[in-house]
Structure formats: C-alpha cells, structure tokens
From TrEMBL, chain A:
Its cofactor is FAD. It holds the Pfam family FAD_binding_2. It comes from Marivivens donghaensis. The keyword Flavoprotein applies. NCBIfam families: CobZ_N-term (TIGR02485), PRK08274.1 (NF006130). This is FAD-dependent tricarballylate dehydrogenase TcuA. Keywords: FAD, Flavoprotein, Oxidoreductase. SUPFAM superfamilies: FAD/NAD(P)-binding domain, Succinate dehydrogenase/fumarate reductase flavoprotein, catalytic domain. The keyword ATP-binding does not apply. InterPro entries: CobZ (IPR012831), FAD-dep_OxRdtase_2_FAD-bd (IPR003953), FAD-oxidoreductase_2 (IPR050315), FAD/NAD-bd_sf (IPR036188), Succ_DH/fumarate_Rdtase_cat_sf (IPR027477). Residues 5-432 form the FAD-dependent oxidoreductase 2 FAD-binding domain.
Amino acid sequence: MTSPDIAIIGGGNAALCAAITAAEAGARVLILETAPKPYRGGNSRHTRNFRCMHHGPLGPLVDSYTEEEYLADLIKVTGGKTDEGLARLAIRTSEECLPWMEEHGVRFQPSLSGTLSLARTNAFFLGGGKSLVNAYYLTAEKLGVQVEYEAAVTHLELDDDRVTRVDYTRHGQTHTITPKAVVVASGGFQADTDWLARAWGPAAKNFLIRGTPYNRGVVLADLLDQGVEQVGDPTQCHAVAIDGRAPKFDGGIVTRLDCVPFSIVVNKDAQRFYDEGEDVWPKRYAIWGRLVAAQPEQVGYVIIDAKSLELFMPSVFPPIQADTLEDLAEKMGLPADALVQTVSAFNDACGDTSGFHPTELDGVTTTGLTPPKTNWARPITEPPFYGYSLRTGVTFTYLGLKVDETAQCAIGNRPVTNLWAAGETMAGSILGQGYLAGFGMTIGTVFGRIAGKEAAAHANAN
Amino acid sequence: MQMQTDLLQEARRQAEICNACRYCEGYCSVFPALHAERAFSDGDLTQLANLCHNCRGCYYACQYTAPHEFDLNLPQALANVRQDSWEELAFPRAAGKAFQKNGVLIAVASVIGFALLFWAARVLASVGGEGFYAVLSHNAMVAIFLPAFLFPLVSIAVSLRRYWRHIDAGPFRPAHLIAALRQAASMKNLKGGHGDGCNFEDEDRFTHARRAVHQAVMYGFLLCFAATSVATVMHYMLDMPAPYRLFSVPKLLGISGGLLLVVGCFEMIRLKLRSDRTLGAAGAFGGEVAFIGLLGFTGFSGLALYAFGQTAATPTLLAVHLGAVLAFFLLAPFTKMAHGFYRLTALTADAGRSRK
Ligand SMILES: Cc1cc2nc3c(=O)[nH]c(=O)nc-3n(C[C@H](O)[C@H](O)[C@H](O)COP(=O)(O)OP(=O)(O)OC[C@H]3O[C@@H](n4cnc5c(N)ncnc54)[C@H](O)[C@@H]3O)c2cc1C
Ligand code: SF4
Ligand code: SF4
C-alpha cells in the first residue's frame, strides 16, 4: 500500500482518539492493530468508565469534581509520585473530553449498580469499553481512516531524531511503510510474561493478565533499545487480587472478587497473612495483588461462611462450597487441620459483632490476633462454608516512553521530530506508581487527541 | 411445564457472567431485572427472555463474545429460551410446537384457509346479499369468524396465565399494565437505551430501522383491526351494513393500516434477511419470516379487495383475503404474533418488580 501521512500503532482508546483527531485535521491515517478484529481495542475493550473533572453536572455525572480535588485524589494514590504539570493537563482537559467523546459516538449511562460511590467522578460508558471502541472505529472509518488488523509492528527505524520507517508483519508477510509521522499507542508489556518474570522474578509466571494478550511491549522495547527516553520502573505494575480460576488472559472485570473484607484469607499452608478488614475493598484491592504475589505459589484462599455470602457483588465463578471446614479444605487443596486451627483462632479473637456494618468501617475487630482483622471481624461459624482462590491479576505495567506536554517522545534530551506516544505506553510519564480508577482512559483520551493533533500538524507541514 | 433444560442452563450461565459484569445495564429492561437477582430460577430466566427484544446491543458491546472462552451471546441465549417458552406455554401446546418454528406449516395452514373460504363461498353463497354478502352470507361469515376470533383470545389468555404463574409474578395490578402499555406504545426499549436505535441489520452500527418498521407493522395491524371493529359496530349498532364508501371511517382506517402493514412487513423481512441469524433463536427464522409474510399478505389482499371490490374478481379476492385473515387469527397464539402478548405481560411483571 502507499504510505499514509500518519501511522498509528495500536487499536485501543488512545490510538483511536489520535486517529480521529488527525483525520479531522486532514491527514491520511493508517491504524496498525496487531489483534484480529474480534479482539481489537486492547485493554480499552475491558474498561467501564473514565474519570472526568467537571464544574456542575455534566452528562451522567452529578455535582462537580474540581481540578484540585481530582489532583489531590491522584497524589494520594500515587504517594506523590506524580508529574504535576502533565497531571494537571490531563485533569483539566478531561472536562472537554466528555462532550468530544459523545460527538464521536460514545454513549454514557448512569453509574452502574454497585458503583454508586463513583457517580460523581467517573462517567460510565454504555455497554462498556468495547462499545466505545466500536463507536470510535465507525467514526474513524467515516473519516477515511484505514485500519489493518493482525498487523504486528515489529520495528521503527530511527535515523538520529526521526522515524524513517515502520516495519510490520501481517499474515506471515513483512511490510514496510514510510509515514511522515508516527503515534505509538500500543499499551504496556504485561502480556509478555517472560519480560514480567525478568523484572519481578519467576513468581510472575503465576500471574494472570486481566486484559489483552496482545500488549507485549514489542514496540516499547524496540524504541527503548534505540535510546528513546524511558520513564518508570519495570517492576511497577498495577495488580489486583482476582479469582484464581480466571483465564490466563482477557478475564476482564468479571473475575474480580469483592468478598475479602468479609472473609479471612489464608495461604496454601492455611495461614493468614494480612488484615482483611483494613479498609473498604475499592481502596484495598490493589494491594492484595501484591500480597498474594508474595505468598508461596502466588495463591491465596478466601474463606467465608453462609452469613456473608450475599454481602458482595456476585462474581463469575461460583464459590466452592462445603458443610464443614474440613471438607472445604479438602476441596480447595488446603491442609484441613491447619485451616480448622486458623479459623478457630480467628473466631476466638472475635468480640462483640453487634456493630457490624458491611459498607462502613465498623471497627468490629479482633483482639490479640496477628495479623489482626480490624473491621468486619465476625466469626466464621455458619455452614455451609464457601471458598474462593485468589491470584494476582496484572492490569498494566508502568514502564514506558517519556513524553512532554505535546505527547512527543524524546531521545538524548531532544524531541524525536515525528514520534508521539499516547495511552498506557506513556502513562508512566504521569504516574510513577499507584492508580486512580478511570484515569487510564483519561490519559489515553487526552494524550491521544494531543498526539493526533501534533502529528497531523507535522504531517501537513511536511 | 417442561422447558428445555439445556437452553435454560446456557441462559443461566450467561446471566451469571452478566451479573458479575453489568456493563450493559443501560441498554434495556433486561439488565436491571437481571442485576436484582443473585441466582436465576427457570421462571426468572423466562421472564428475562421475554423482556429481551433482541436488539443485539449487548452482543456487539460484549468483550466476552466468541472466540473468547466465555462465549457470550446473550441475545441468542435469551431468544432460545423465549422461543421455547412460547412453545411450551401455548394452549394447546402441540399447536405451539407445530407452528412456532415451521414456516412451511404456516404456509400450508394459510392455503387451507383459502380453500376453506372458497368452499364456503361455493356452498354457503347467499342469494339475496349485497356486496361482499353476495359472495358469502353475513351469517356464514359470523359463523366462521366468531369462533376464529374467540379461540385465539381464549388460547392466549390461558398461556399468559401460565406464564404469570411460571415466572412467579405475584398479584396483578392494573397500574403496572398501564406502565407497560406506555412503554410498548413508544417502543422505548427499541431505542437502545441511548436513543440511537439497535444493532440489528448492520453489525455494530446503531439504526432506527427496526424500530420504525416494527412501529409500522404494529400500528398498521392495529388500524386494520380498528377498521374491522368500527365496521362491526356500524353494522350491528348503527344499522349501517357494508359496503362502505371510500371516505368512511372503516375504509380510511383500513387503507392506511393496510398500507402500513404491507410496507412494514416487507421491510421487516428485508431487515431480517440482512441480520446475523446466529444472534436469534435457532431454527426460528423460517417460522418468523412466514408469519410476517402471512401478515403482510393479509394486508395486501385487503387492499386489493378495496381496489377491485366492485369487479368480477371480488369472489376470488374475498376468499383469498378472508382465508388469510382466518389463518392469521387461528395461528396467532402459535406464531410470532404471540410475542406481543408475552412481551406486554413481561413488561407488566417488570413494572411490578421495579416498584417493589
Ligand atoms: C479489566 C480492565 C479494566 C479496566 N477498567 C478501566 C476503567 O474502567 N477505566 C479506566 O480508565 N481504565 C481501565 N483500565 C485500564 C485501561 O484499560 C487502560 O488504561 C487503557 O485502555 C489504555 O488504553 P491504550 O489505548 O493506551 O491501550 P490499549 O487499549 O491496551 O491498546 C493497545 C493496542 O495496541 C495494540 N498493540 C500492541 N502491540 C502492538 C504491535 N506491536 N503492533 C500493533 N499493535 C499493537 C493492541 O492490540 C491494542 O489494540 C482497565 C484495564 C483492565 C485490564
Ligand atoms: S453482555 Fe457481555 S458486556 Fe454486557 S453485561 Fe453481559 S457480560 Fe457484560
Ligand atoms: S439483545 Fe437488546 S434487549 Fe436483549 S438483552 Fe441484549 S440489549 Fe437487552
């Protein structure tokens, strides 16, 4: 094919926002998406909302959510490891993103049942991320954007401070194009478990990948090898505790388990290892990814009894059920004696449970137990007993390309004149660690649009 | 009642996945009802299935459709349960089993309808009647059509009662029926939750085509039905027997209704032919298309009768039209026609649920 003005690598939210913006600016755009059409859209197809600043009610969002409050929330979760300039840019621009998204086909819905706490801060996509991705592909097509599926980019040839060539393979054949500008929006590297294992140690082989199997960091590695500036730490990733029976890739949202606060969690030796009631679950589920990763064989087991079964959102796999703890232990492959002992030690440490309140920090705590359970501590006594296994589920990695406020990449302190990056692949430029729900889509939308605009301006001028 | 357990089990499996996901909550009434449960009885699933109008929004939006191992296809799973429920709840059940999925049988029944009317016209022709009654005496018409009209009403009433019990809907409240009628009149759900329509005939592109066409068919049918009712009233209460002039209430209703019905049915079949059949009930396609064909043909033959009512073709046209009407009415409880009644009942039950 003849070379387009702009090649966009990736087919998720950031790539599509860039492609649409560039095409609207008059550029001829080609999207190279490594996934086949049914799996297009990377991790974006698994999302449900984006976090949006707003003054007064906006679309599905109630009240208001100011720049300062948003930034404060961000700094809290990242422990201050935030690039404030870029963060403010993302936050401020998020407000105009919502109407832009609607104009380009995205539809919103009120906060989903079970997520009322997000009704003010996060705008939910009707139908979820895949419907957002579908809408963007339709819009892009209308604007004349070309899309090649199953097109795996393998190499960007850098000549000093310019990308001169893009190589990709498709159906076993190698192709080369020479676009005027390139936007990298190909996500992190979490699906390459060898790379994860190099960064994390062999334990990473037991991690599950919550999203797409196609984000293997091929382009990221290629660019970093050629000296393009890097940001973030390869050992940093966003990981949560999910149902251990989830598929290796692409299990998505339905594999989450919300029952930990009402449970005790033990390792494969049937020993507890952390305070299950430390805080409400949305604030704690990310640390449990790491806690489980630190246990033998990277696995945990949640134990609850009948009275807690209906206190949390149902998950995709039914719990393992037994009438006695011994039977449950056997079904779950745990040492029965040890489990019975752990549970009775826990039960003995429980006190007055009359203040139990499932949705608030209720202070119903254990006494004299290590580790303690500081909220929702009710004895596990009422059969049938239920169990789930827990594994570490990686959402995305932080290592990425360093960009400036125009989303442009750099090499040796100079900009790469025709290379921009957007989305997960540059998110490390803003967040050093930690994560705020809905911020990934904000980064992708804001920086995707910036990258598209800048790349088009460059292509139109050359 | 013996619904197919494999179909129910598959719908249950998928509903449990949706319940852990909830991304489609805003599309239609199915999801709020689904998310209100933790476990799904056969009755719950039947109710969800009848709340679904197969807009396919949730299929194209789903991140778990094949080739993903979760293999979500909720529109299909619910269509299968819905189809099965109509067959199982039909009274008599054997008729539901026979006709719901069988386009050929529907065609055969229509031809029998024509033949019966031709025979009746020959044997029961009246001597002194005017207009249509010259072909078939008024009493003969009543003798044929009164039972043909009452039978489907009784049959559907029995089925809906069975349905109400099966889904365990509790006491019936008229206010809930009114809420349901209001939703049906505007076909709120066919707008797809965001007002852009549904994903029926053009993959993930939203259009209003199906809603528009469905409105045409429904209002066309209701207008035709009104035409007949008005004529009946005029005949019996006002002593104004047919034939009527062009600018009379029955004719105006009948002509506008007939046109809507013909165009609507034709377009509906075209949409169906373009849609992806794997998102509907297995094996039901032929029966659905045959039913729509029969409905459209009923409208068409009615219009032809208006157009050529005073010619030598009248006896033939009348027999064909009345034959189609007869087949349509007798088959109503056992064809796609039944869906309107089930859907209204499902919406009524849902209004009851959501106001609890
Ligand atoms: C289960 C889950 C739920 C989430 N929920 C939310 C949420 O509700 N809100 C939120 O803000 N964030 C959420 N996130 C995070 C969010 O998914 C990401 O921040 C966001 O989607 C990143 O968008 P992106 O376009 O940068 O990357 P992606 O959407 O992952 O797109 C990367 C694209 O690059 C393609 N690609 C990769 N390598 C190549 C190559 N070599 N050649 C060509 N193409 C390539 C991939 O196929 C893919 O299309 C969630 C993540 C997961 C896993
Ligand atoms: S159809 Fe798919 S996306 Fe929609 S709620 Fe069900 S599982 Fe979620
Ligand atoms: S096909 Fe349409 S009506 Fe049926 S469940 Fe899906 S979104 Fe609802």
